[in-house]
Design goal:
The protein contains 5 helices and 36 strands. By secondary structure, the protein is mainly beta. The strands form 8 sheets. Strands 21, 23, 24, 25, 27, 32, 33, 34 and 36 form a 9-stranded antiparallel beta sheet that branches. A 7-stranded antiparallel beta sheet has the order 22-26-35-28-29-30-31. Helix 1 packs antiparallel against helix 2. The chain starts with a helix and ends with a strand.
């Protein structure tokens, strides 16, 4: 470590000022200090390696594909491709912290050899994909420090007396310094058991043959009418695979990195089983059953599960600097998240930057009814447009493919707009009264907004009452006018709370944030 070598050189600079006896004593002290530093450097590596191992081993989808034992632990290859090292049983060279995880999923640290643990402040738990694994090091002054942001910033660890924890003062800790107290292998059950100093155990399967790991699949999970679910997969020693059972009308595909299941547009509601066989390189066969619950909706989401929208159905709206409504899209779940069974969309200014929120379906649909319950939870006097709308899944150039605004709400207005945009209404100057309606609402409560996309008209409702109808005029030259393109292609649903458009007026920073909440969304197929 360069910092410690600098300290040693500083001491050597003072040696000529001392007597020979004192010089010999200083040399012995330096030798002792340097050996302690080398031991501390090894400890730092072990502690950080153990922290990485802990985070990986707690992943429910992880299996161990190979391992070898060393003097003080195991080196393992995991099914996610990572190689991790678990160290246990080493004596601490001085006062060395232990990094681990408690039963609630918090990163914790011990400074008394594992007798007591405290939560590491500002750290993000190992189950959060966006969190960094804590790291430790010794700073230039010889104190233990910890980083919870990938090494960008470091803070000193404090001892029980509230003072910084010294790494080089020679104090000893009885016992070992690793969060793992022992590791055992159950060969009969093909399991590796990691014993923690907290008394808990972590059990991870050992798979030395063919296996298929399907991430984020839940038995009996819902699949909706005509929709496709895609799962990331890992194939371990799989030479070939074949689907043995697939219900009529369903589609199932297994690739090298993904598995896709497509449900038919029309089917009876219920549970359906698909059976896949994989063959290992040595000819052993394994069967894998996948059970899905079919629902005749195209989509239904009540936002009750998790903290972010279900990634099987939803994705964040992308930022496009050339388009007003999306120029400030955050593309982050900090602005689009789930809370108390609601989808929350937040438009705000943070650290001097404007951020909008938006969510869209990952698939398109046609001949449908779209329903959602929404509320404008925090409104502003100017600068925000909140909307739920449909756009062609083919991303056809606007407005040729059409756009259906189920609602557009501006600021704190007691009304909103319901609109159909087409080439006829926008470019050819069609009757403006035919394309939209301004409707009075109570924006402070959850209202139910419904839109039917039919062969002859787009029909709008609020709380069950029809409010507007955009009808097909059946022009003989429809191919040129494109007055009613809504029955010719698939559409996808977008919901957003946006800054940056001209219509709602200039942004007023003092009013922010603006918030829209959605209680549920249902998309059904129309006959």
């Amino acid at each position: 470590m360069k910092t410690f070598k600098y300290l040693i050189c500083s001491v050597l600079f003072l040696i000529p000022l001392a007597s020979c006896n004192k010089t010999e004593g200083l040399n012995r002290d330096l030798d002792t200090l340097e050996s302690r530093i080398l031991a501390l450097e090894e400890s730092v590596t072990d502690i950080n390696n153990n922290a990485v191992a802990i985070k990986n081993l707690l992943d429910k989808d992880i299996v161990i594909t190979s391992f070898k034992q060393s003097e003080y632990g195991y080196e393992m290859t995991l099914s996610n491709g990572q190689t991790v090292t678990v160290v246990y049983g080493k004596e601490a060279p001085s006062l060395v912290p232990i990094i681990g995880i408690d039963g609630e999923g918090n990163w914790i640290a011990s400074i008394d050899g594992g007798k007591t643990f405290t939560k590491i402040e500002k750290s993000v738990g190992p189950y959060d994909n966006y969190g960094a694994t804590p790291q430790v090091k010794v700073d230039a002054d010889g104190y233990w420090t910890v980083s919870v942001d990938g090494g960008k910033t470091w803070a000193r660890l404090l001892g029980n007396n509230g003072l910084p924890l010294s790494a080089v003062d020679g104090r000893e800790v009885a016992g070992k310094y690793a969060f793992f107290s022992n590791v055992s292998v159950d060969e009969e059950a093909s399991l590796m058991v990691f014993h923690l100093v907290t008394g808990e155990e972590v059990t991870v399967p050992i798979v030395c043959g063919s296996t298929l790991i399907v991430k984020d699949y839940t038995p009996k999970e819902k699949i909706f009418s005509g929709s496709t679910l895609t799962f990331d997969v890992e194939l371990i020693d799989v030479a070939s695979a074949a689907w043995l059972v697939v219900p009529d009308g369903w589609e199932a595909k297994l690739g090298s990195t993904s598995m896709t299941i497509k449900a038919p547009a029309e089917y009876e509601d219920g549970e359906y089983s698909l059976l896949l066989t994989t063959i290992s390189r040595n000819g052993l066969a394994s069967q894998h059953e996948f059970i899905f619950t079919y629902e005749s909706y195209i989509l239904f989401d009540d936002f009750e599960e998790g903290t972010i929208p279900n990634p099987k159905y939803w994705e964040l709206c992308p930022r496009k600097y050339t388009t007003g409504w999306s120029m400030y899209m955050s593309e982050s779940y900090e602005n689009t998240y789930l809370e108390d069974g609601k989808l929350v969309l937040v438009a705000e200014k943070k650290n001097g930057v404007y951020w909008s929120a938006g969510l869209q379906t990952k698939f398109g649909f046609e001949k449908c009814r779209v329903e959602l319950s929404a509320k404008f939870t925090r409104m502003v006097t100017s600068g925000i447009n909140s909307a739920a709308w449909l756009f062609p899944y083919s991303r056809m150039t606007w407005p040729y493919g059409g756009e259906v605004d189920i609602f557009e709400h501006l600021n704190n207005m007691p009304n909103l707009w319901q609109t159909c945009h087409t080439h006829y209404s926008v470019d050819l100057g069609g009757d403006p009264n035919d394309k939209h309606r301004k409707v009075e609402i109570d924006p402070t409560i959850f209202n139910t907004y419904t839109m039917d996309l039919t062969k002859d008209a787009v029909i709008f409702y609020i709380n069950g009452k029809e409010t507007f109808r955009y009808a097909d005029k059946h022009f003989p030259d429809e191919e040129e006018k494109m007055q009613y393109p809504f029955y010719k292609s698939d559409f996808y649903l977008l919901m957003d709370c946006c800054l940056g458009t001209e219509w709602p007026g200039p942004i007023k920073d003092e009013d922010l944030p603006g918030i829209m909440e959605v209680d549920w969304v249902k998309i059904s197929k129309l006959d």
